[in-house]
């Protein structure tokens, strides 16, 4: 007897049937490409731990942005690497700082064709490599070389100033990634005070202290010179706390939220997507990229298939937008 039981295979028997019944689809507009622009470069510099990804000069970034627009992706997330770093990250909000210069060019070149998102943090701009300003730890004696900690509240003023500079330079979206408490409220106040009431905030709301950021440190040249980021980024074992971080950012005025990294945190992506009614992004980080590229280079994975499967999984988990270093290539594949 062959009747009387369900046959899942019926709808899998041809590519056309599978396409018709696919529950998750990828389209170029789902993808955002993170890009790095470094002051002083005259041509792009390869990043050894991220084959195929470069640090851009302003000119090569402009060319890459045109290519991204032609591929139909949703937007760019900009990171800047200044020539000069200092304790407070002055170049992040300098009007002629590298990221703000790049934003002006891109906005002039592309208008509103691509969504230009500005990552807002200080770690690429500070000489100590932390995401905020630092102060001696309670109990440490200043000048004695004691432990330093990232000081939350003075950092908020810096973030607000950076947000205003980025909005004035042409960023369509401000994306704070520093995981300081109160950062969204401070940035919203800063933007509103400068007349940028229409500029949305995409909060890196649930950003974990992850081992998968390794290659990014080379790309953005923002490795901490002491300690780590475990005192401000989320602890990987925690899930409920992600919902609290997201709720707090929304209460402070975030227009959209992000989970980072993506693949090791798909449960978080799903829980956040179920909990909120704003757009949810997930950031497929440098280590996720490097894993697939390294295995594919050895012939251990079918690169294209693996890339598209990871992107599908992130969308299936509930992210509407995926930040991915494969954005342009994947857009061409799925178009
Ligand atoms: Zn940072």
TrEMBL record:
GO biological process terms on file: protoporphyrinogen IX biosynthetic process
The answer to whether keyword rRNA processing applies is no
Q: What InterPro entries is this protein classified in?
A: ALAD (IPR001731), ALAD_AS (IPR030656), Aldolase_TIM (IPR013785)
Q: For this protein, what is the EC number?
A: 4.2.1.24
Q: Which Gene3D superfamilies match?
A: Aldolase class I
Ligand binding (5-aminolevulinate 2): 286, 325
Q: Which residues bind 5-aminolevulinate 1?
A: 217, 229
Report the pathway entry.
Porphyrin-containing compound metabolism; protoporphyrin-IX biosynthesis; coproporphyrinogen-III from 5-aminolevulinate: step 1/4
The record, for CDD domains, names: ALAD_PBGS
Q: Is Zinc included in the keywords of this UniProt record?
A: yes
Kindly list the positions annotated as binding Mg(2+). 245
**Annotated SMART domains:** ALAD
The alphabetical list of record keywords is: Heme biosynthesis, Lyase, Magnesium, Metal-binding, Porphyrin biosynthesis, Zinc
A single Gene Ontology CC annotation of this entry is: cytosol
Instruction: Give the catalytic activity.
Output: 2 5-aminolevulinate = porphobilinogen + 2 H2O + H(+)
Q: Where does Zn(2+) bind?
A: 121, 123, 131
Question: Can you provide one Gene Ontology molecular function annotated for this UniProt record?
Answer: porphobilinogen synthase activity
- The entry's active site is 207 (schiff-base intermediate with substrate), 260 (schiff-base intermediate with substrate)
- State the PANTHER family in the record: DELTA-AMINOLEVULINIC ACID DEHYDRATASE (PTHR11458)
Summarizing the function annotation, the protein's role is: Catalyzes an early step in the biosynthesis of tetrapyrroles. Binds two molecules of 5-aminolevulinate per subunit, each at a distinct site, and catalyzes their condensation to form porphobilinogen.
The family annotation for this protein states: Belongs to the ALAD family.
Per UniProt, subunit arrangement is: Homooctamer.
Matches recorded under NCBIfam families = PRK09283.1 (NF006762)
Name by which UniProt lists this protein: Delta-aminolevulinic acid dehydratase
Q: Which organism is it from?
A: Goekera deserti
